[in-house]
Amino acid sequence: MATVIGTGLKGMGCMRAASIVGHRQSTLHVQKLTRCCSTENTQEPDILDKTKLLKSDRMKKKTGDDEFIPFVIRGKEPQSIDRHFKKWTVFKDMKHPDRHNVMTTEQDWTKVWPTSGVFRWSSVPLALRQGVIRNETENEGIIPDKEGNTELIKVPNFLHLTPPHVWKHCQALKKFCTPWPEGLDSKEDCRLHFPVEVVTSDYCFAGPSIRDPRSRVVTVKVKLSDLELDEHARHKLLKLVGDRYDKDNDMLIFKTDKCPTKQQNRDYAIFLLTAVYLEAWKKMPWEDDIEGDDFLDYQWNLSKAKDRTVLNLMSMAEGDQNSVYHNEEENEILEKEEVKNYAKAISKIYDDEESIENLNDLKQSALNMLQLRTS
């Protein structure tokens, strides 16, 4: 009996355990069916999504901003201050001091501004103002200063071409230069060895192109006295050049700007000078009939005043043996210094104008030629 009862108890225990296991399995099966049949997305995120969420949560907790993560420099961390339930962020010592405020008077400017560039107000130790104000209330009636002034950026500057810059450039180019030639110590020496002077110009400006239309202009100058000309060739050359002759400086000036490049205009100016010089030496048969009135200036040698002056001096010297013109021929009289000065004074009256100074020179030269003294 005891054996049967024990067996029975054991059998009942096994049946109870089996029923409990079956209940648990049915419960798990029902839960699985519920999850599969549910319309809501109950799947848990994967490991990568969990990592991303954790990182974003940490950054949000650290910065306190859900939209923008500021870049924080070590030593320049912001300090948060709560005022009236509002959050303010204060950055201490974030602005670097302007360079012109810490710049010494012995500062090497070539290192501050080594090359050309737009205007940088923080580096220029000058109190500059640029702009306009529309009324007295705008900017307190004061023209905007250089700090953050966009008007100063628009205009070009030459802060890279100061005297220290130029001096350094010259020192760098000095090793490529040759010694100055001997015998060219003065401008007169240079003009004697190099009579033709060519003048050109280069322009630096702000624009879309580096070419300036004014840079193609070329001027060629040469003194008329430096050209080998006789009286006929000189007269003809002056007729050909017209207003290109500067009478005050005795200079021939050829200015050309019709060609597109500077070299073309230079070649054209040299061609003009060569052409008029060679043409001046050509003599046509009809040129033998030219009289004194046909010349541009007064011609003493072709004038009647020369013949009358020589006759008067010869007649006055016939009865005066102490005269410097006694027994002198016509060529000898014309070579006298007093006669030459008289001829120059008359030419100045005809060519320039009848001024008081020219009239006094003519009077004095005539008295000297006639060997008369004024009381």
Automatic annotation (TrEMBL):
Biological process according to GO: mitochondrial translation
**Which GO molecular function terms does the record list?**
structural constituent of ribosome
According to the entry, every stretch annotated as the Small ribosomal subunit protein mS35 mitochondrial conserved domain falls at 211-285
Q: Which organism is it from?
A: Mizuhopecten yessoensis
Q: What is this protein called?
A: 28S ribosomal protein S35, mitochondrial
The superkingdom listed in its UniProt entry is Eukaryota
Keywords annotated in UniProt: Ribonucleoprotein, Ribosomal protein
- GO CC annotations? mitochondrial small ribosomal subunit
PANTHER family cross-referenced by the UniProt entry = MITOCHONDRIAL 28S RIBOSOMAL PROTEIN S28, SMALL RIBOSOMAL SUBUNIT PROTEIN MS35
